[in-house]
Amino acid sequence: MTQASTDSRIAGQGGLSRRWPQVVAVAGISVAATLVAVLGHPRLQTPDLTPILEASTPIRIHLGAAVICLALGAVQMASPKGTLPHRLIGWIWVGLMLLLAGTSIFIKVIFPGHFSYIHLLTAWVLLITPVAVLAARRGKIGLHSRSMTGLFYLGLITAGAFTFMPGRILYRVFFGG
Q1: What ranges do the domains of the chain cover?
Q2: Cβ-contact 108, 88 below 8 angstroms
Q3: Would you give per-residue pLDDT tens digits along the chain (177 residues)?
Q4: pTM
Q5: Do 73 and 152 contact (CB within 8 A), yes or no?
């Protein structure tokens, strides 16, 4: 399948059904930003990396993988699909997403010692990532595209927005407290 036909198949899927991950991400970011403003009374400061340096190893690995996934995911979204660079970056991104989800199993700070609602995303990422890879390998490009887009917007953007909640590490990095 050529690049043009792959992109046109994806583009032809229609409005909201193709944009649901972005809509959910915007809603999640809006809710998180509202909660940060209401609960935290934030004042942006020069970033203080001390909370990251003092964090546990799983948290530091998780954060590093998340930052790299965010950058690579943005490149993937903007780049031509089906090319060799797309596949290479995609495999790296998939490996880092699985590392990201794997390390999140060991992060239990919202309810100390217990899983929290955010761990539902861990299970979702661990389920959807292989589905998305298999879809691409079997030529089901629409399913692959929807799955990967969902992973990017829901698994990274929306979940990432909630890492800025008062009391969490990234809140302390950027807003103090």
Answers
A1: 16-175
A2: no
A3: 444 444 444 444 555 556 766 777 777 777 777 776 766 666 778 889 999 999 999 999 999 999 999 999 999 988 999 999 999 999 999 999 999 999 999 988 777 788 888 889 999 999 999 999 999 999 999 999 999 999 998 889 888 888 888 888 998 998 887
A4: 0.78
A5: yes
d(CA 120, CA 108): 13
Residues 11 and 80 sit within 8 Å (Cβ to Cβ): no
Q: Which residues of 137-154 are buried (b: 16+ CB within 10 A; e: fewer)?
A: eeeebeebbbbbbbbbbb
| C-alpha dihedral (43, 70, 79, 142), degrees to nearest 10 | -120
